Amino acid sequence: MSAENAPVDEAAAAALWEAYRAARPDRALDTEPPSVEVFGDHPALTDELLGLVLDGTKRATASLVAEFRHEGQPLPRVGSHWIACDSAGRPRAILRSTELRVGPFSSVDAAFAYDEGEDDRTLDSWRDNHRRYWQRVCPGIGVEWHERLDVVFERFEVAWPPEAADR
Question: Where, by residue number, does the polypeptide cross the bilayer (predicted)?
Fold first, then answer.
């Protein structure tokens, strides 16, 4: 893709995290600040997917284990948080992992595809869209795409801000 997302606003993300920690000390138990990320690999996709999160449609995401390794990030764990930004780099939501599973691309099921909230929410479209996405992403992380690559299947809730939070 020719267009790129803007760099994330780390200061604004830290402020969002501190607001959440002050309001929800019972939930913000991470000892390290959360990672600050974007969905997708180009601005239109980033904003589309974030919009699905904010409107309550998208409550799952999938990433290659190789993407975490390439970025030097640990795999998420249940209860961990991450901050999702829009394509302009503005932090918009704090997400909390509620369920995680690592398995090959072929192990995705229809319920997970539906929870991702993308396209028509079917398993076929999930496979099509994610196959194309990872075929674009893999060369940039030095990995050859194949369907046996391990995928992190993650379900999440929106923890913050209050107007978008699931509870």
Answer: none
